[in-house]
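for the recovery benchmark. tokens below, seq after
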């Protein structure tokens, strides 16, 4: 569900600034400064560690449920593109059946679209609930602690999708991918992530502590409205 506060029109996110308004013909300046180089990574690892420790009871419950209802392995690893295009393994709780690789004929030809749909026949009831509340993404706190991801930033994209990027789209990799970002609080569910690269470039052009805090705060109602839709 789209939140009323769209980042393209919301002045609180400073997206009306001339430096933003990023189009597919524009190139953003790589973010620099003390916040990007030192403060943001320190916050990510410190807060990420605190959140990971605090989430251990939930992680344990979800892991137990996945093991009982879906089977092992409990965690799913998938290659995604990180900062500067470097691949890394993103962690997620499994939401699909163990034979998902053998049921390609049961899904649409565009696996990317089907993978994002709650109607995907490979999903289980438990998997749909985990995805609805984004609980399947909780293990990515470990990616944050390891320095592969940030709390806020463009979501890490599939390597196969990035391989088909236009040159201008690779600019989203100037920063570390995040657990949440502008795309999540504005147009999540409206379309595929790679179709809204402009939103990610707006974040790259305006990254700051203030912007990160606002995105984090808005992630909560965004997740609640999505889960309630």
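predicted aa per position
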């Amino acid at each position: 569900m789209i939140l009323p506060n769209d980042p393209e029109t919301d002045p609180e996110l400073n997206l009306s600034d001339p430096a933003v308004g990023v189009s597919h013909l524009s190139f953003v300046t790589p973010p620099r400064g003390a916040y990007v180089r030192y403060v943001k990574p320190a916050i990510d690892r410190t807060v990420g560690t605190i959140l990971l420790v605090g989430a251990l009871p939930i992680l344990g419950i979800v892991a137990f449920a996945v093991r009982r209802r879906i089977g092992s392995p409990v965690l799913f690893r998938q290659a995604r593109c990180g900062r500067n295009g470097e691949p890394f393994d993103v962690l997620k709780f499994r939401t699909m059946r163990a034979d998902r690789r053998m049921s390609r004929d049961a899904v649409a030809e565009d696996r990317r679209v089907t993978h994002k749909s709650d109607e995907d026949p490979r999903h289980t009831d438990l998997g749909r609930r985990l995805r609805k509340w984004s609980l399947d993404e909780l293990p990515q706190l470990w990616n944050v602690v390891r320095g592969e991801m940030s709390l806020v930033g463009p979501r890490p994209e599939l390597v196969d999708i990035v391989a088909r990027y236009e040159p201008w789209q690779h600019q989203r990799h100037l920063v570390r991918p995040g657990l949440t970002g502008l795309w999540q609080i504005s147009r999540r569910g409206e379309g595929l992530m790679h179709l809204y690269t402009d939103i990610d470039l707006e974040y790259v052009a305006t990254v700051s502590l203030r912007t990160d805090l606002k995105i984090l705060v808005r992630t909560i109602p965004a997740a609640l409205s999505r889960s309630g839709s």
